[in-house]
Each structure stands twice: as structure tokens, then as C-alpha cells.
Design goal:
Blueprint: H1 15-38, H2 44-78, H3 83-110, H4 113-175, E1 186-193, E2 201-207, E3 213-220, H5 224-245, H6 248-262, E4 269-277, E5 282-288, E6 294-297, E7 300-303, E8 322-326, E9 332-336, H7 338-341, H8 352-362, H9 368-383, E10 392-399
Antiparallel strand pairs: 1-10, 2-3, 3-4, 4-5, 5-8, 6-7, 6-9, 9-10
Helix pairs in contact: 1-2, 2-3, 3-4, 4-5, 5-6
Protein name: PPM-type phosphatase domain-containing protein
Transmembrane segments: 21-42, 48-69, 89-111, 117-140
Pfam families: SpoIIE
Length: 400
């Protein structure tokens, strides 16, 4: 979204309004000048002459400025200047011309001949300095107004961007599951927790035709909207492939093939698909670049390391394999993305695998929701609630 172009108004102030303000300011300026002159001991004639001359120059200069604007405004409009720059040019020339006219007339009629030239030079220099000072004020005002306008545009741009991100967050939340399914023999808890308004982590619970649960946990490279868009597309294709093929290895192969034909940017998808079969007390697991899940059995915690492959869409095409792992009542499975173990504190130190394993091993509860909350609480405590740098997806499955 590009910031809106600044719209300038090149219509000068009406002459009557300019003349009215000129008379008010000239009167104030005349009385200010009159005070030190009146208290200096000069006669009334000199005092009135000083007041009249300052008042006349105060009227003449704005009048000249108004007529000069007829020339400077088209120049500003043709060069895309701000109107203030046209005013500054007109004010400089108008003030300088009015001062020179005042100096010449006053010098010819009221200043002795031997002092006349110095008087005219003095007022010409003084008028140049005053006009330059006025021009400087105009340029300062122009910079201030430009910065204010840029600030207003930035606020409007940020507001529009925030609204777009809010809508993107709503769309993404609609794509991701808001709660896990209820399946006899399994207790499930977890979810996706984006680091920013939108994220690139992927989570899906899909039921096959015969009622088996297919759990998918993934991570799209990249950040923010681009990752979220690829995540949404990948999620849709993934669910379609699960419906068509069911077996995790075939799902990964088909999704990998699709990504290689459609991908336009250097983004990849790390994905893990697990198919639970409670009738055989087993789980088919296929992995493409995702972190190995944990299994807690009795008091031991281990990684479920299987033969995996690179993330989908990365490197040469290679076959995806799946392995069948046994399940027992009381088993606890923890699926997670790298945002969990790579959570960092203020020193840049990661929470790490050891911390996750220790927590899963020592926590007494076997309820998935309590374990998820315990892990998230531990991460927040370790990072001191600083803004996370990566999305977190965490799913805990308990075999009953």
C-alpha cells in the first residue's frame, strides 16, 4: 500500500483578508516601534513620521507579496513545490522591494544629502536581512508541515496495514483448528501461537473415513503475511491429499510435488504427519524436516527419531518414508515446532531441547492441557515475556 500523495492548495489568500491582517500587524508593529522612539526625546513630528513610515511599509510589503504570488504560485505548482515555498519567495521579494522603496523615498525627502546614500544602503541591507529571516521562517514552517503531513500519512498507512493484518489474522484463525477433536482413546491439547499478527506455523487434525486421526504439524519458512499465505495454501492442499491418500508418506510426496510445481519464491515447508491407529495401538509417522516429537513412556522421555527428508520443496526430489511406532496406554506424545526450543531470553540464549525434555519428564500430570500450559508458562518465564521471534505450535497427545 503506497502512501497517498500530498495534495497542495495553490490558491492565494484573498486580498481583502491579507490587507486586513496586514493592517492589524502593521498597527501592532508601529506601536512597538513607537515606544522606544517616543521615549527617546524626539519631537512629535519625528515620532509620527517614524510611526507612519513603519505603518506604510507594513501595508506596502504584504500588498506586494499578494501581487507577487500571482507569479510565484504558478512556478510552485509547475515544479510541485509546496505553497509555502511560493509564499516565502513572494515574501522575500515583496519585503525587499518595499524596504528599498521606503528607504529611497524617506531618504530623498527627510535625510540630509550627505547622509542619504548611507541611509539607503543601511535600510536596503536591513530589509534584505528581514526578508531573509522571513523566508527562513517560511522554510521552517514548510519542513514542519511536511513532517506533520508525513506523520499523518504514516498513521493512516499503519492504521490501514493494521486493519489488513487483523483481517489476515481472522482468516488464518479460521483456517487453523480452534480446538482438537474428541477421539476415544486419545486426549489432545495444543494449538498455534503466532509471534506476530499472522504466522507461518501449520496445524491440522483430520479424520480418515474409518475414524483414524491424522495429525499434521508444520512450519513454513519466512515471516508474516508471505508465510501465512503459503501456510494457508499448503494447509488446503494437505487436507485434500490426506483425504485422497491417508498414508503420511504418500501425503508428503504429493505435497512436495505440488510445491515444486507451484512455488514462486524461496520458501519451504517443514512438515510432520502422524496417523494414529488405536485398533493396532500404533502410529504411522512421516517427517520432512520437522523436529522429532517426544514420547514419554512411564518415566523415560525419548525422541521419536525416524528416517526423514528435507523440508518439502527443498533440494533434490527424494522419496518420503514412514515408520510404524507402537503406542501404549499412558504414553504421552509431544509435537512442537522450533519456536518452542528456540525461544530466547534477553541474552539471546535458547530455552533448548534439554529444558523441554526435563519439563516433560518431571511434570507429574498426564493431562495434555496441563502439560501444554506448563510448557508455555516455562517459556514465558524463561524469556521474561519479551516479544517472541518465532511462532510456536505445540500439541500434546495422551494415549488412554
Amino acid at each position: 500500500m503506497q502512501p497517498a500523495r500530498i495534495s497542495h492548495n495553490y490558491t492565494p489568500m484573498p486580498f481583502r483578508r491579507l490587507l486586513r491582517w496586514s493592517m492589524i500587524l502593521s498597527t501592532v508593529l508601529g506601536f512597538i516601534i513607537l515606544i522606544p522612539v517616543a521615549t527617546s526625546g524626539l519631537n512629535v513630528e519625528n515620532v509620527l513620521m517614524t510611526f507612519g513610515s513603519s505603518y506604510s511599509i507594513g501595508i506596502a510589503a504584504p500588498s506586494l507579496v499578494f501581487f507577487l504570488l500571482r507569479w510565484t504560485m504558478p512556478i510552485a505548482q509547475g515544479r510541485n513545490w509546496s505553497p509555502i515555498r511560493a509564499w516565502s519567495l513572494a515574501a522575500f521579494l515583496g519585503g525587499l522591494i518595499a524596504t528599498i522603496i521606503y528607504a529611497v523615498i524617506f531618504g530623498l525627502f527627510f535625510i540630509p544629502a550627505n547622509e542619504r546614500f548611507n541611509f539607503i544602503i543601511f535600510w536596503t541591507i536591513l530589509g534584505s536581512l528581514l526578508s531573509a529571516g522571513t523566508t527562513g521562517l517560511f522554510y521552517t514552517a514548510e519542513r514542519v508541515l511536511n513532517e506533520l503531513d508525513k506523520g499523518r500519512q504514516a498513521l493512516r498507512h499503519n492504521a490501514a496495514l493494521s486493519e489488513e493484518l487483523r483481517l489476515a489474522r481472522m482468516i488464518q484463525e479460521g483456517l487453523l483448528p480452534d480446538h482438537p477433536p474428541e477421539i476415544n482413546g486419545l486426549a489432545i491439547a495444543g494449538g498455534c501461537f503466532p509471534a506476530h499478527e499472522v504466522g507461518g506455523d501449520l496445524l491440522s487434525y483430520d479424520l480418515t473415513a474409518d475414524g483414524r486421526l491424522c495429525l499434521s504439524v508444520g512450519d513454513v519458512t519466512g515471516k508474516s503475511v508471505s508465510a501465512a499465505m503459503l501456510m494457508g495454501i499448503t494447509l488446503g492442499v494437505l487436507q485434500s491429499e490426506i483425504y485422497d491418500h491417508e498414508e503420511p508418506a504418500t501425503v508428503l510426496s504429493e505435497l512436495d510435488r505440488w510445491l515444486r510445481t507451484k512455488r514462486q519464491t524461496n520458501n519451504f515447508v517443514a512438515l510432520q504427519v502422524a496417523l494414529f491407529n488405536l485398533q493396532t495401538s500404533s502410529m504411522l509417522l512421516a517427517n520432512a524436516g520437522q523436529l522429532a516429537p517426544l514420547r514419554r513412556r512411564q518415566h523415560e522421555v525419548e525422541f521419536l527419531e525416524i528416517k526423514g527428508s528435507l523440508p518439502l520443496g527443498m533440494g533434490p526430489t527424494m522419496p518420503h518414508v514412514q515408520e510404524q511406532l507402537s503406542l501404549q496406554s499412558g504414553d504421552l506424545l509431544v509435537f512442537y515446532t522450533d519456536g518452542v526450543v528456540e525461544a530466547q531470553n534477553a541474552k539471546g540464549e535458547m530455552w533448548g531441547f534439554e529444558s523441554l525434555i526435563t519439563l516433560v519428564k518431571t511434570i507429574k500430570s498426564n493431562h495434555p492441557h496441563e502439560i501444554v500450559q506448563a510448557i508455555l508458562t516455562a517459556i514465558r518465564s524463561y524469556t521474561h515475556n519479551i516479544e517472541p521471534h518465532d511462532d510456536i505450535t505445540l500439541v500434546v497427545v495422551a494415549v488412554q
